[in-house]
Amino acid sequence: MIKVGIVGGAGYTAGELLRILLHHPHVEITCIQSTSNAGNALASVHTDLLGDTDLIFSAELNTDLVDVVFLCMGHGKSKEFLSSKPIPDHIKIIDLSHDYRLEAEKNDFVYGLPELNLEAIKGANKIANPGCFATAIQLALLPLAAVGKLNEVHVNAVTGSTGAGQQPTSTSHFSWRNNNVSVYKAFSHQHLGEIRQSLKQLQKGFEKAINFIPVRGNFARGIMATAYTDCQLSEEEVLNMYKAYYKDHPFVTVSDVNPHLKQVVNTNKTILYVEKHDDKILVVSMIDNLVKGASGQAVQNMNLMFGLDQSEGLRLKPVAF
């Protein structure tokens, strides 16, 4: 059994991680750290786990009890934690924050997008789990970059309120978010760095603009990203190229019909859809921001790091209604 520890166990990504790992056939959860909830039952915070576990939060991470640690803290907190409380080298680390995603920062973390870095992830000891917007957008664009056909990109993506984290803010509480929609961080979102890094990994020298407009949606979870770029290939050629690129990746489906968000909510799936309009290719990408965009992808990475089938424990059912 893989012994798992979680640091920052009270947030949305930790709750989703616990929901998945409690039913993973090769995992034993041995430590869930939360400074603010030490001594409390998990189910008192993650109320959907009532009846599933009697585990309680601890004040500290006990490294004697774990094989892998998931860091589920806010951006900047993972570096702070690891600098003050180093984790022994034999313990694997999967960080769900932004802290170690960029190679330019000269760290020893592997960027954990399996559809891009599968073999590197298998041999890694430390993983930087991708961002949710970054996952949806990269999966929409990687096949074009892989054949050097990516031009200037225009992206519009709408995300659910859980993407803002559990701590209430002026734009995430119900009375503001419900029946509302708004743009934020236009052309400047923090995920742009990792998106460009991955595209350049496949299409050397890619310096075209990535025009990204993020949108706050009035729903709880999920991301719908639409990306378009100039492309002289036919729709059939692009569709075949996408299906070939993802044929060995179990969580990406290239659909022949336009998808909708409820097909992916509560799952680790990505659904892609391709259309040609004059000289432009439009790609629609759907994910659950908390699963494939965070905790599900983190478990997928854990599976690969420990030599398991990457889909182990992740065949989750979508929310149909």
Tell me about this structure:
- The strands form two sheets. A seven-stranded mixed beta sheet has the order 8-9-7-10-13-12-11. Strands 2-1-3-4-6-5 form a six-stranded parallel beta sheet, covered by helices on one side.
- It has nine helices and 13 strands.
- The protein is an alpha/beta fold and 321 residues long.
- Helix 4 runs parallel beside helix 9 and helix 5 (132-146) runs parallel beside helix 7 (192-202).
- It has two domains: 2-130 and 292-305, NAD(P)-binding Rossmann-like Domain (Rossmann fold, 3-Layer(aba) Sandwich), CATH 3.40.50; 132-289, Dihydrodipicolinate Reductase, domain 2, CATH 3.30.360.10.
- 27% of the residues lie in helices and 22% in strands.
- The model has no long low-confidence stretch (mean pLDDT 93).
Short synopsis of the structure:
The chain has 321 residues and is α/β, with parallel strands linked by helices. The protein has helices at residues 12-21, 42-45, 77-84, 114-122, 132-146, 174-177, 192-202, 235-245, 291-305, and strands spanning 2-7, 27-33, 68-71, 92-95, 110-111, 126-128, 153-159, 182-183, 210-216, 223-230, 252-255, 270-277, 280-287. A 7-stranded mixed β-sheet has the order 8-9-7-10-13-12-11. A 6-stranded parallel β-sheet has the order 2-1-3-4-6-5, with helices on one face.
